[in-house]
Design goal:
4 strands; 97 residues; four-stranded antiparallel β-sheet; single chain; alpha+beta
Length: 97
């Protein structure tokens, strides 16, 4: 899975499959600028050429009332907890008995 994130506030747009990401790269990627841009007209064009409805819905929701949006993608890292919580044994204080 891949994550789409907004450039302006770094908020998460949503998770997409490899095929959905490739569709976006094929139709929106620009070698000169990092990330991708969408507005309501671009979204309509993507629908017309067969974009996945779920993908368009995610982008529409994130676009909200803004005229345009710039976003990027990254690979979804596997979840690894930073701290492992181990329940304490009542009545015991680490050290030797």
């Amino acid at each position: 899975m891949y994550l789409l994130n907004r450039f302006d506030d770094h908020s998460k747009i949503g998770e997409v499959s490899k095929e959905q990401l490739q569709f976006l790269i094929d139709h929106l990627s620009d070698d000169e600028e990092p990330g991708m841009y969408v507005d309501s007209d671009v979204l309509k064009s993507l629908v017309a050429i067969g974009a996945d409805r779920m993908l368009i819905g995610m982008l529409e929701n994130s676009l909200g009332h803004h005229y345009w949006m710039r976003f990027t993608w990254c690979t979804k890292p596997p979840f690894q907890p930073l701290i492992q919580v181990v329940p304490a044994t009542p009545g015991r204080r680490g050290g030797r008995a």
